[in-house]
UniProtKB/TrEMBL annotation:
Biological role stated in the UniProt entry: Conjugation of reduced glutathione to a wide number of exogenous and endogenous hydrophobic electrophiles.
Assigned EC number: 2.5.1.18
Protein name: Microsomal glutathione S-transferase 1
Organism of this sequence: Notodromas monacha
Organism lineage string: Eukaryota, Metazoa, Ecdysozoa, Arthropoda, Crustacea
Similarity comment: Belongs to the MAPEG family.
Keywords: Acetylation, Endoplasmic reticulum, Membrane, Mitochondrion, Mitochondrion outer membrane, Transferase, Transmembrane, Transmembrane helix
Entry-linked SUPFAM superfamilies: MAPEG domain-like
Length: 150
């Protein structure tokens, strides 16, 4: 199969760049989401941070704060792989329709994952469906890159 040069002016690259930027922005938005939860619960990880809130206390085990932190960690464990393998995937000359829909699916799934995990927690399988939808996209792109390499 082999690899092709990326058309940086093409529709596919624009779509990928757009969705990569959206999910990177999502990771960045987890910082104020975590801070909001910390202030709402008056729970901080450092004594100097706790002093800025009248009722602030130091705790590393608040379940609501930890839920948001785990969602952030999950982003950090998945989104960089999407950006990296997506870049290589662009070089496999994929179908425009399939690739665009995979980028969209990944983005929607990651936003949904955060929503059902950290914003308005819903019972399983909501989080699992969102997680595995995005995970499947990474697997398909990875396999496509491996096949193109041989």
């Amino acid at each position: 199969m082999g690899f092709s040069a990326i058309d940086y002016e093409g529709e596919l690259f624009s779509c990928f760049a757009f969705h990569a930027a959206l999910v990177i922005l999502k990771v960045l938005l987890m910082v104020p989401l975590t801070a909001r939860q910390r202030f709402a619960k008056a729970v901080f990880s450092n004594a100097e941070d706790a002093r800025v809130h009248p009722k602030g206390k130091v705790s590393l085990v608040d379940p609501d704060v930890e839920r948001v932190r785990r969602a952030h960690l999950n982003d950090l464990e998945n989104i960089p792989f999407f950006v990296l393998i997506g870049w290589f995937y662009l070089m496999t000359n994929p179908s425009l329709v399939i690739a665009k829909n995979m980028f969209r699916l990944f983005t929607v799934c990651r936003y949904l994952h955060t929503f059902v995990y950290a914003v308005v927690p819903l019972p399983q399988p909501a989080r699992g469906i969102a997680f595995f939808g995005a995970f499947l996209v990474i697997v398909v792109m990875t396999v496509s890159v491996l096949l193109a390499a041989f």
